Amino acid sequence: MNENTPLRIVLLAKQDTSPYFTYQALAGIFRSQGYSATIADSAETIPAADIVITHNTYGFAEGTLNEVARKGIRVVSFMDNPMDKFAFLETIDPSVILVFTDPAHIPLAREIVGNKNRIIDHPLDIAMFAPEQVKPLAERTYDLLFVGRLVTFGSVNEYSFLERRLARQIVEATLHSTEKLIHEIAIEAFQPYKKMFLYRKEFISEYFLKYCWKLSHAVRREKRMRVLNELKKADKELNIAFVSNDSAALKKEFGAHHSFFDFMPWSSVVNMMGDSKVVVNTMPSRMECLHERLVETMFSGAVCLTDVNRKIKADFADRKNIVTFNYRSSNLSDALKSIIRKDTELQSIADAGRQRIAELVNENNWIALVQKIVAGEPDLKVF
């Protein structure tokens, strides 16, 4: 590549998706660093490029991005979880770089790809839309903001009697675990039956991991339903804003005196965070990284009320820079009631949270990753 020619980066994301909005901001960041950056919404429309960055195997259908990689173009695919990508990972070209934002998922990914691909652990808990200035909590419209899809999928009705029987046990154990991912919990649950030859499925297989993936959606559904039930117990005078895929159902459950919104561009959600005192976060299947909802909440100067994983427990302090709850002994409603009317304490937690997240999140880590790829570190080909 000519030294005087800007590195050509293509960001691949489907229009009207959350990654597409994120990639629009990223393109601006890359351009400000002297790179050439464009967005494509399909593999077929990728222009001339040196690096193609995609997410969750988008564009790998029918081997399209594999063909791009075989032309010598560096292809980088970000992934949040390998469980539902077994077939893709088995067939991805060995030159494709896989980037997992949660290092806890890398061992499973390595087993699936058989160590053929370069896998990078590169957390990207980046605030894309956070304001430079924030309103004091006393001036904000909403006491609390809930953002989340009301998940209806995750059924295992088509599975065997044993798989259906153990599903509830696995879901419940995952709700309370901050040490093991759901597929690890599921393997332990089935191990006694495998020893007795009552279960003959391979654990590292598309069949079993797809089963675990369905259960992960059941976990997400269960978390959000328990959070909503806890919100019903909270102070009835709270002004709560809900952003979801089923506003009508929530309005029926909570009453018209609250505010209900359909899903909107992520930048608009972040603006609502900046007008809310507290934002509820439920962690998806991530163990050693954060979630953009938590990051944006704190950068927006709101208090994050969240369940926990290993990273949250290690990097934050409850009632100091974050407020935590669990699904057994420390309920959301109790945690919320203990702080919501204490304006001084609430503001102190919000301020400390904003300072702490700024310490943890490197705003240039997307740039750092591209520079790592370009420089050939570690063990990467130099352009």
Mind sketching the topology for me?
Layout: E1 8-12, H1 18-32, E2 36-40, E3 51-55, H2 64-70, E4 74-79, H3 86-91, E5 97-100, H4 106-113, E6 119-121, E7 142-147, H5 161-175, H6 182-195, H7 206-233, E8 240-244, H8 247-254, E9 259-262, H9 266-273, E10 276-281, H10 292-299, E11 303-306, H11 310-315, E12 323-324, H12 332-339, H13 343-360, H14 365-375
Parallel strand pairs: 1-2, 1-3, 3-4, 4-5, 5-6, 7-8, 7-10, 8-9, 10-11, 11-12
Determine and state the CATH class of the largest domain: Alpha Beta
Number of domains: 2
Structural class, by secondary structure, is alpha/beta
Sheet-strand content, in percent, reads 5-15%
Provide the low-confidence segments as ranges: 379-383
Element pattern in H and E:
EHEEHEHEHEEHHHEHEHEHEHEHHH
List its salient traits.
383 residues; alpha/beta; Rossmann fold; 2 domains; six-stranded parallel β-sheet; 14 helices; 12 strands; 42% helix; disordered C terminus
Care to describe what's here?
- The structure is a single chain.
- By secondary structure, the protein is α/β, with parallel strands linked by helices.
- It folds into 2 domains: 8-126 and 363-375, Glycogen Phosphorylase B (Rossmann fold), CATH 3.40.50.2000; 137-153 and 224-360, Glycogen Phosphorylase B (Rossmann fold).
- Helix content is 42%, strand content 14%.
- It has 14 helices and 12 strands.
- It has helices at residues 18-32, 64-70, 86-91, 106-113, 161-175, 182-195, 206-233, 247-254, 266-273, 292-299, 310-315, 332-339, 343-360, 365-375; strands spanning 8-12, 36-40, 51-55, 74-79, 97-100, 119-121, 142-147, 240-244, 259-262, 276-281, 303-306, 323-324.
- It has a 6-stranded parallel β-sheet with strand order 2-1-3-4-5-6, with helices on both faces. It has a 6-stranded parallel β-sheet with strand order 9-8-7-10-11-12, with helices on both faces.
- Helix 2 links the parallel strand 3 and strand 4.
- Helix 5 packs across helix 6 (182-195) and helix 5 crosses helix 7 (206-233).
- The longest helix has 28 residues, at 206-233.
- It is globular.
